[in-house]
Automatic annotation (TrEMBL):
Function: Essential component of the vacuolar proton pump (V-ATPase), a multimeric enzyme that catalyzes the translocation of protons across the membranes. Required for assembly and activity of the V-ATPase.
Family the entry assigns: Belongs to the V-ATPase 116 kDa subunit family.
Membrane-spanning ranges: 409-433, 454-471, 534-556, 563-587, 623-641, 741-762
Main location, first listed in the record: membrane
Organism lineage string: Eukaryota, Viridiplantae, Streptophyta, Embryophyta, Tracheophyta
GO molecular function: ATPase binding; proton-transporting ATPase activity, rotational mechanism
The protein, known as: V-type proton ATPase subunit a
Location of the protein in the cell: Membrane
Organism: Sesamum latifolium
Amino acid sequence: MGERRRGGCCPPMDLMRSEPMQLVQLILPVESAHLAVSYLGDLGLIQFKDLNAEKSPFQRTYAIQIKRCGEMARKLRFFRDQMSKAGLATPARSLPEAVLNLDDLEVKLGDLDAELVEINANGEKLQHSYNELMEYKLVLQKAGEFFNSALSSAEARQREYASHQSGEESLETPLLSELETANDSSKHVKLGFIAGLVTREKSMAFERILFRATRGNVFLKQAVVDEPVIDPVSGEKVEKNVFVVFFSGERAKNKILKICEAFGANRYSFSEDVSKKTQMITEVSGRLSELKSTLDAGAVHRRNLLQNYWNNLSSGTFCIDVTKKCLVAEGWSPVFATKQIQEALHRATHDSKSQVDAIFQVLYTREMPPTYFRTNKFNSAFQEIVDAYGVAKYQEANPGVFTIVTFPFLFAVMFGDWGHGICLLLATLYFIIREKKLSSQKLGDIMEMTFGGRYVIMLMAIFSIYTGFIYNEFFSVPFELFAPSAYACRDPSCRDSTTVGLIKVRDTYPFGVDPAWHGTRSELPFLNSLKMKMSILLGVAQMNLGIVMSFFNALFFKNSLNVWFQFIPQIIFLNSLFGYLSVLIIIKWCTGSQADLYHVMIYMFLSPTDELGENQLFPGQKTAQLVLLLLALVSVPWMLLPKPFLLQLQHSRQQGDSYAPLPDAEESLRSEANHDSHSHEEFEFSEVFVHQLIHTIEFVLGAVSNTASYLRLWALSLAHSELSVVFYEKVLLLAWGYNNIAILIVGIIVFICATIGVLLVMETLSAFLHALRLHWVEFQNKFYEGDGYKFYPFSLALLDHEEE
């Protein structure tokens, strides 16, 4: 859904919460209803409700008129297509100058439709005849050249034979002369021939099949037609060859005819007589000239007909006068669009010269409004990522705001390589630079999705370049970009090692990972350890963000129970365990401690009172662990027990109060949006308790599994790096080591193909899907319900786009 800019009435976009909506009622006089609907369709800011949902389509008041209008709309689309084919521009919608009755309009459209259909049918027949004559003329010309050449060759041979006969006979003179053979009719072999045209791409197969079917008992001559010709059957321009097949016998003729039919070869009759051939070419040329004049006159007539009729239709609008009553409509619209809708209704009243103005009024309801986020071409793709999981309910916190940053960043953590990121960025810039041209073209399904997410891919590429600088990887190769490595070998024996025998000789590498810390294959290198711990930190941070968003949702909808018995115990449980682990990781990085964090976390549960020994990272760590473990254990019944009993108490109080003050409209909408369908049913304590038990178990187990799930960031990053190393060392460097230019070229080609196909396509898709899963499952399930429905306004622009 694109951003709408209508004058200066629209407030700034707020993606955190959906636009405030209102249910409005429109009372439209019949004489201005058609214009009002048209102007509201141009505005595209109101979603109409079906007020006759209980009736079938055939029971509705305007069923017959709608059916007639649908048929007329089909005819109008047909006229517009015909105008496009004729090269006529369709004029933009203008203010009406006259009102046409539906019956008069239907008669005019029917007459035009019938006349156009007849003109098109006649034109197609004439064009078909013209195309056939064009092919026939080519056959006469090209095949005539075959016979002329053969006749000239025969006359030359006859003259040569006559000159030899004047001399003395020798031992080499044949016993039976050619002349005698020619005069003996009993020795004649009557050859038949078939001439026509076959498509050039099938000509070789056509010749091969003819030879095999007749066992070589045919003689085929072909000539290339210089320019493409229009095929009479398909109507498309095709490159063709003229052919002549000489054969003997009726059986061979039948085989050749079947082969011509199978290959779509058009056959034409032909005479061997030179005088008849010249006469036929003259006749065909004359008929072609006549048909060309007729086709040109028909095209001019058709063009004038379309132009005149469209001018007449576009100068008026259409009124359905069934009754003299008013029409009532209800629909949802954004609050900011109130003034624009009222202006459109006033304009419709003025333009239709109606004596009665349309009525616009806001209705108060407890029905859930649709969700509407105003987006633009940059953030619309991020919003679609969220909506694919589920549409936010009315005024619910929107994860799309955070997705703009967190989604490309988590992708880049798995895809971090600034060489690959640059390649991805260059490919995306192509779509962005040419977006105006590409947006008006019909692309394939995959290209359409790629083009729609071009700004998502751009941010993914930029973040990948950033994380690639942090990992210090360019196609898996580390570079000393910002400074020399801070480490050097203690002696020459450590030259091939990157983790053993190194001493620090300079200041710390200023940005990212030191090139020396790209470890060997035999041990877990520092970079992989960094990625693993960083995955846990990112996961805990994003899950905390999700829980905080649930807190803001509870405050916004004024749900104090969720604040005290959902947000607080959840944040305590998560951070008592995994928040504490994150703190230990940071302390270990800062202090350089050799403590085993696996041992610390396991024995925090198994032996919480044992001494930590060498695994102690800070004073008072044992006491802090006991307190955190106690808080984690307390938070579980805190989530489970109080809320069902408090809900039962709240329900009993509501039943005891016969009367209560009515809330205002906005508060009622928020409270209604916060309650599910069970709020209208009878309260069942057992159902509520079981639901809360499931929710508690899901969160406790999910906190563990979701944290482990974030380790996919480390796993995917490791896989991407290892594949890059394999392609670099086993393909590029291996080819370089042969000192052979041919092998080097082949190696470079294989390296480029593998990089594009595996690392830039498959790995990009893999990292994209894993980042999608982390947002949908690990992040959004902490606060996002996604059980709303989208705002689909009535828009003529969208209808035109769907028709195209």
